[in-house]
Amino acid sequence: MVLPITLHSVSQRLGLLAGIALALSGSVVLGTVPMEAATPAPRVVDVPSTPAFIKPPQGGERPARSGQTLSYESVLRTQKPGRLQVQLPNGRSFRLGGDAVLRLGRQRLDLQRGQIIAWVNPGTKGGAPLTIHTRVATAAIVGTTVFIEASDTSLKIFSWEGEVACTTTDGQRKTLRSGEQLAYENGTWAKTRLTTQEAAARRQKSILLNGFSAPMETLPVLERELGISTPVSTR
Hints:
By secondary structure, the chain is α+β, with helices and mostly antiparallel strands. It folds into 2 domains: 1-38; 43-226, Sandwich (Jelly Rolls). It has helices at residues 2-37, 196-205, 219-226; strands spanning 43-49, 52-55, 62-63, 74-78, 83-88, 92-104, 109-120, 130-133, 137-141, 145-150, 154-161, 164-168, 173-176, 180-185, 188-193.
């Protein structure tokens, strides 16, 4: 009588252990899928004009196309009049134009030259600031819209709306607010504020604010912030 009961008990215990192992295995697999799905990859959402190129970390340079998924550490390049728009995770986006070169880092954007407008969608919560690094300064934005133009000898950082925290390579810290611009030329920094008329003229002529089919969610915000009206499309 003892032997059958013992075997039955062992069988029950083995079955119980197998069930626990299966349940744990299932929970790991199920827990992995949502985490991956919650972090979408950056992708190109608009290429209104060419030439515009993408060079992934592994492989050669190829023409950029709308809908293209991007790997981190890819190099994005445009030649006049080429432009493109990229959507990042967590409500962040940017547009690139001019003779621009940018490396898409996981933690920051490295702008070597050219023009960029970057923004964080209104209402976006959480996540690190969107950081743009240049040769002589770094700009960090949270819930704002910033324009940067970089060359080998000069730099302009302009806040279209909201606060932009700027840190120069020589250790200076400056904060820009809506309509303010920080410029670097010949080793000297200068901070100025655009008038409403100057901001409206820049809005009208900007190659990055006009001519895109993909939306820019902060465009109405910056127009309202600076008291300027929407221009006729220059696409």
